[in-house]
Amino acid sequence: MLIGGASIKVYLFVATLGYSRRLYVRAFRNERQESWFSGLESAFQHFGGITEEVLFDNDRGLVVHHDRETREVEFNARLHAFARHWRFRPRACAPYRARTKGKDERGVGYVKKNAIAGRAFASWSALEAHLDRWTREIADRWIHGTTGEIPIERFQRAEAGALRPIAGVPPFAASRELVRKVQADCAIEVDGNAYSVPWRLIGETVRVTLAGGQLRVSHAGREVAVHQRCAGRFERRVDPLHFAGVVGFRSTALVVPAPAIATADPELLRPLIEYERLVGGRW
Fold it and tell me: What is each CA distance from 204 to 218, 223, 236, in whole angstroms?
């Protein structure tokens, strides 16, 4: 899509209520598991309640394995946790079976053709505002081809009262957990971007947690780095403290400076002179 004059790949999350056929639409920049969870939580908020079950597409971030012959489904462990949190039963579309797959696909196709095709937007927020307005003024109020009724009226008459109340249920803290090896440039690579960690951890394996727009790195049970996540690719986030004591290091060479981390472990930031004294000279 053209957003702000640039061609940007957009992923559309579309949730459809099974009885009324009411839609909820949200745009994302990726199709990661965290986006699925965020979209579904937003859908519950939009509809004002939680459904008894949710029928998912066979996305690899949600479904580990779906046997075409036996219909046995293995869901991702975090999807199970998400479903337990919101207390719904997860189901997966039967592979290559139009009856279950079609209900998913028709909603997505309708949004693409009716709400998106031929349009350009000044910004991402303008796209989001358009989708909200289109859902409220068009999708909610057209006569559905299958039910023969207006979705919002059918929802209010027979479906709204069947949803389980959402009040009092906190958001599911969706996060990704990764394991990375620290490279020779004192950085780890995540989603095509580089993030610095203390130089002493070169060659070590660290645990990375991505949540709430932040990237947190821990080693041996201690948090050693915190960065704001990069929005694009091939970017660097560098904290000058991670290079303190390295001979020849110049802070002016940093590409994208990050705020200092107050919680960094002092043991990981020792100047090289201390080690030189221990071994009796320079390395």
Answer: 11, 14, 20
pLDDT tens track for 66-110:
766 666 778 888 888 889 889 999 988 876 554 454 455 577 888
Specify whether 193 is located in the same domain as 241: yes
| C-beta atoms surrounding 193 within 10 Å | 20
* Residue 37 CA: distances (Å) to CA of 1, 54, 56, 142, 164: 23, 12, 11, 28, 18
Bridge partner list, 236: 194
Q: What is the pLDDT of residues 163-220, one digit of tens each?
A: 999 988 888 876 678 999 999 999 999 988 999 999 999 999 999 988 767 899 999 9
CATH of the domain at 158: 3.30.420.10
Return the amino acid letter for 221.
G
Domain region containing 66: 2-162
Q: Is residue 84 part of a domain?
A: yes
Whether 121 and 130 have beta carbons less than 8 Å apart is answered as: yes
What's the alpha-carbon Rg for the chain, to the nearest Å? 24
